[in-house]
Design goal:
alpha+beta; ten-stranded antiparallel beta sheet; Immunoglobulin-like
Length: about 220
C-alpha cells in the first residue's frame, strides 16, 4: 500500500489574489480546451504558436500572455463527431507572474464528478509502482479539472518527472478519484492519466525560457 509523503509547509498567496490570477490564467486554456473538443483542426486558430517535443506540445495561446506545455489524449468512436480530450499541462501567465507555474489536469468529459475541496493525487511510475518512489499531494478542485499551484509542490513534481525520464521510465501514472465524494472503493472511481516522459525535460526547458521572456 502506498504511504503518504509528508507535506511541506507552504505559504500561498491570499485567496483573493490567487483567484484573480487563476481566472486570468485559465480563461485562455478553457477557450482552447473547448475549441479542441469540437475537433483538433481548430487548435491552430486557438494558439499563436506550437512546438512539439514528442507527446508534449509547447503552445502560446491566442492572447500571447499564456504559455502552456501540454500533453493531450484524444478519444473518438467511429462515426461519432464528438471527440473526448484529457490533458495534463504546465501553465504560466505573463499578466501576473511568469515565475508562478501551475499544473492542471482536465479529465475526460463525463468521468469526473468529484466535489471535494481538495483531491488527493498519487503520481507513480507505471512500471513496478509499489517498488518505486511516488509523489502524494492534495491538489485543488476546479470541479471540471484539478490543479496544483503550490510552488514547492510544483517544483518537486517537475524534478520527479525529470528524474524518472533520466532513469529510463517511459510513463508515470497520475491517479485521483472522480467520485462525487472522492471515494475509490469501486471500479471506475479511480481515474488514471498516463503521462509519457520522453522529451519532457527538453520541452520544459523551452517552456521556462518562453515564460521568462518579458513582453
Amino acid at each position: 500500500m502506498l504511504s503518504r509523503s509528508p507535506q511541506p509547509v507552504l505559504h500561498p498567496a491570499p485567496a483573493a489574489s490567487r483567484q484573480l490570477d487563476r481566472r486570468d490564467l485559465l480563461r485562455d486554456v478553457m477557450r482552447l480546451f473547448l475549441a479542441l473538443s469540437l475537433g483538433p483542426c481548430l487548435s491552430a486558430s486557438s494558439a499563436l504558436a506550437a512546438e512539439e517535443y514528442g507527446d508534449w506540445s509547447l503552445e502560446t495561446l491566442k492572447s500571447g500572455a499564456t504559455i502552456t506545455l501540454v500533453q493531450r489524449i484524444f478519444l473518438s468512436d467511429p462515426g461519432v463527431v464528438h471527440i473526448s480530450i484529457a490533458d495534463f499541462s504546465f501553465l504560466c501567465d505573463k499578466r501576473s507572474n511568469a515565475n508562478n507555474i501551475e499544473v492542471v489536469v482536465f479529465p475526460f468529459e463525463g468521468t469526473y464528478n468529484n466535489r471535494e475541496t481538495t483531491v488527493p493525487v498519487v503520481i507513480e511510475p507505471a512500471r513496478n509502482p509499489t517498488k518505486r518512489s511516488h509523489l502524494y499531494w492534495e491538489w485543488s478542485n476546479g470541479y471540471k479539472y484539478i490543479f496544483l499551484n503550490q510552488q514547492d509542490a510544483v517544483k518537486k513534481l517537475i524534478e520527479y518527472l525529470q528524474t524518472n525520464e533520466q532513469n529510463g521510465e517511459r510513463f508515470v501514472n497520475v491517479l485521483f478519484s472522480g467520485h462525487f465524494h472522492g471515494r475509490i472503493d469501486e471500479v471506475g472511481q479511480l481515474l488514471r492519466f498516463a503521462v509519457t516522459l520522453p522529451n519532457f525535460s527538453e520541452g520544459y526547458s523551452n517552456f521556462e525560457k518562453a515564460c521568462a521572456v518579458v513582453q
